[in-house]
Specification:
Helices cover 36% and strands 19% of the residues. It has 246 residues and is of the alpha+beta class. The protein has a 5-stranded mixed β-sheet. A two-stranded antiparallel sheet has the order 1-4. The longest helix is centred in the first third of the chain and has 32 residues.
Amino acid sequence: MGTEKNIRLSRQDIIDECKLFFFGGQETTSALFVWAVILLCQNPSWQTPAREEVLQVFGNNRPDFQGMNQLEVMTMVLRVLRLYPPVATLNRTTYKKTQLGTLSLPAGVEVSIPTLLIHQNKELLGDDAEEFKPERFSVGVSKATKGQSLFFPFGGGPRICIGQNFAVMEAKIVLSLILQQFILELSPSYAHAASSVITLQPQYGVPVILYKRGKQGWRGQLSFCSSSMKKLGDPFSFHVRPILIF
């Protein structure tokens, strides 16, 4: 692997790249999934149509790739990335003198892009910019943002996240599998607090009560967090990495 100048990646460079893929591919998707679960629990009016759509497309069969493109409601729900992007800010460093609008930046300047603030800018998106409202994306991202760069949870340009489509696909599959089987409800012990620790994640975890569809009286509980899978004692209570549930 090399450029036109025959510069090759060292062994350490390759190890670092692999670590980045592993971390980025797990943590960002986990964060997306967890925030989607929280918002679905807080907005039953969206959880119900999302479940109905999954059952209409897949029935009780295991979700497949072809059906993913038919999940329009699910796609809108996953725009939760606007309120809770994987990272609150994106940082870039200029490697040469760069003209940014009216600003002239010399080489070596670090530019910080406040993703979270831009995603929820009321002057650009309206007074309801801080509300969930997935329907705002029913016309597509471009029309919803009036053609402006107001939604970039995975970055943009030549350095946009290479795994963005895979991450969204993973989240769709896991959510579909859960919605097929369960009705979700936040536990009364849930405390809403977003914390930025590299990725944006719930500070106190997400205890969720599961109601088995079609089985009256059955109830289980999961607590979503960033720790490894760990049994807590109750037969239906676990701490899990969201991406490792199934």
